[in-house]
User: Which sequence fits this backbone?
């Protein structure tokens, strides 16, 4: 989820370039426009603070974002798992749907059982098209029966808003009561790691021990009225904090100061390695418009009622795959040799050379496991853990094995 674009490849390529004394320009493969140097990049409210703290700024989804700071991507990945990392994810798009029909409207576009959510709780979901493909993934929260809050990916913002807006116009023309608001006046921070809750607790009166994974609250943090969701994109316990942009710098400084150096600002590079270790999809790599939620391993996100009733775009295709099984499946791999990269071919393990059975979508070296990890799609039948495969890197077939995900155990805060 939550990005859009090849962050791992971006981080590795740019980390090498940034270490040179005279770095060259951005490679075209990672530019956000045909001539990125001539395009005015958007800046988050924290841009100057990133620069102040040594942030190495790169173009991403039309924004100037920190790839890393003065530590290495490996170090910041390990620090987030051991202590905590603070990420500026203000490039992502938060929006609210309000009105008595906001829930039934959203259910025409996503696979989740939104009506079945308790107020103040949320879930991962997928926006689908008429063919059952994924337009985007999103965390959707039912604030109440007449208020839905969701966050969509930065790289998908324009197409998501156009898609939602077109269907909203049709829905309202038929008498539906729904309005929407895009929260461009707010910034979004992600505080992740085992020290996230203890540090954040120092800045607020509400008891964080009573807020569990997937739950949402509106409350005051460091004197600002915030939307707080206990969620994240790392596999660690943590929070996404939507804060009014004029309070974003103060809140960031307060978190860093209260932590006494234990919380570090963390960039896109470590964000990508953390999410890959957690087995989480990156839209644009591991899920695209031709990929169904069933193929992507997200069948669990399709509520029981939705399986029975359908009613969302592409339901016929998706429900058929649930019954008969999908032709391809997203799986994880361990491998030998160089780290796998996006588009590396996956072959069946055969003494005669093997047939092509799939393709890697994300891969790299795991800072925590100290071994190569990857995810990708293979033909059904080759998806079972323990299946031996070959992964082709630079023309050479390297040994790989299908494994369960997440690669690193998740540590979400749930009731015992």
Assistant:
């Amino acid at each position: 989820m939550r990005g859009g674009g090849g962050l791992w490849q971006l981080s590795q390529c740019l980390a090498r370039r940034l270490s040179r004394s005279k770095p060259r320009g951005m490679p075209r493969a990672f530019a956000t426009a045909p001539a990125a140097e001539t395009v005015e990049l958007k800046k988050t409210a924290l841009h100057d603070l990133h620069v102040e703290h040594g942030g190495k700024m790169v173009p991403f989804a039309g924004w100037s974002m920190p790839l890393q700071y003065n530590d290495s991507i490996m170090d910041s990945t390990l620090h987030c798992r051991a202590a905590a990392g603070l990420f500026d994810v203000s490039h992502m798009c938060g929006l609210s749907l309000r009105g008595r029909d906001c829930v039934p409207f959203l259910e025409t576009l996503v696979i989740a059982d939104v009506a079945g959510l308790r107020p103040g709780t949320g879930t991962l979901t997928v926006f689908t098209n008429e063919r059952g493909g994924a337009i985007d993934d999103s965390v959707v929260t039912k604030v109440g029966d007449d208020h839905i809050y969701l966050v969509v990916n930065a790289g998908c913002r324009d197409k998501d808003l156009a898609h939602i807006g077109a269907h909203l116009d049709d829905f309202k023309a038929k008498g539906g009561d729904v309005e929407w608001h895009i929260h461009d006046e707010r910034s979004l921070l992600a505080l992740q790691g085992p020290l996230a809750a203890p540090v954040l607790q120092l800045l607020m009166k509400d008891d964080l021990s009573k807020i569990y994974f997937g739950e949402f609250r509106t409350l005051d943090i460091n004197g600002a009225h915030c939307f707080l969701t206990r969620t994240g994109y790392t596999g660690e316990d943590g929070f996404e904090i939507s804060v009014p942009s004029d309070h974003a710098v103060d809140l960031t400084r307060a978190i860093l100061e209260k932590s006494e150096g234990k919380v570090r600002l963390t960039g896109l590079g470590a964000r990508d390695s953390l999410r890959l270790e957690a087995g989480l999809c990156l839209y644009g790599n591991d899920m695209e418009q031709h990929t169904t939620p069933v193929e992507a391993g997200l069948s669990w996100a399709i509520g029981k009622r939705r399986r029975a009733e359908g009613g969302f775009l592409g339901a016929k295709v998706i429900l058929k795959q649930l019954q008969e099984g999908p032709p391809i499946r997203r799986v994880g791999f361990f491998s030998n040799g160089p780290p796998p990269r996006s588009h590396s071919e996956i072959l069946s393990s055969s003494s005669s050379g093997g047939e092509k059975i799939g393709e890697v979508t994300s891969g790299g070296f795991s800072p925590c496991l100290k071994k190569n990890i990857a995810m990708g799609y293979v033909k059904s039948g080759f998806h079972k853990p323990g299946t031996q495969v070959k992964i082709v890197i630079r023309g050479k077939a390297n040994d790989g094995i299908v494994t369960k995900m997440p690669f690193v155990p998740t540590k979400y805060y749930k009731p015992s």
